[in-house]
Write a structure and sequence with these properties.
This protein is mainly alpha-helical. The protein is built from seven helices and no strands. α3 packs across α6, α3 packs antiparallel against α7 and α4 runs antiparallel to α5.
Amino acid sequence: MKNIVLKFGFLSGGLMALLLVLTFVLLRGPWLFEYGAPVGYVGMVLAFSVVFIGVKSYRDTVHQGNISFGKALQVGLLIAVVSSLCYVVTWLVVHGFFFPDFMDQYATHAVDKLRRSGATEAAIQKTAEEMNQFKGYYANPFFRAAVTFVEPLPVGIVVSLLTALILKRKPANQ
């Protein structure tokens, strides 16, 4: 199981890393804060499609075509965790070397967006204070890594659940 989890986890993580680098390094621009999250989550779903392939490979090669829901879920979740860890490492590198002012730019964008929407000065001030507090937290690399890990993992969990439901198969004699 370990070989399959690592192989497909790194494949999925490599795809996520590539998409993250493309988005934040090569395609960086004004659209990023407005549309970056939806684009990123679509990329995560595509990258996590490798979970399906990995669980199917495990089922077909290790379990002779049969697998329980629980075992399929376990394999899928482990692949998702490896993939998510690759995503974290990539973001820490991108943030550190290419986008160290990410939180400053994001906070400015959030406040400017509120201003453009006609929000009250109190709401704008409250958001600015919350952003400054979050920037303080985000300066801690452990907090930044934890927040980044939680971004793709829910997608990986959903994909793993769906994969386990689709690929579970009992032996023919049961």
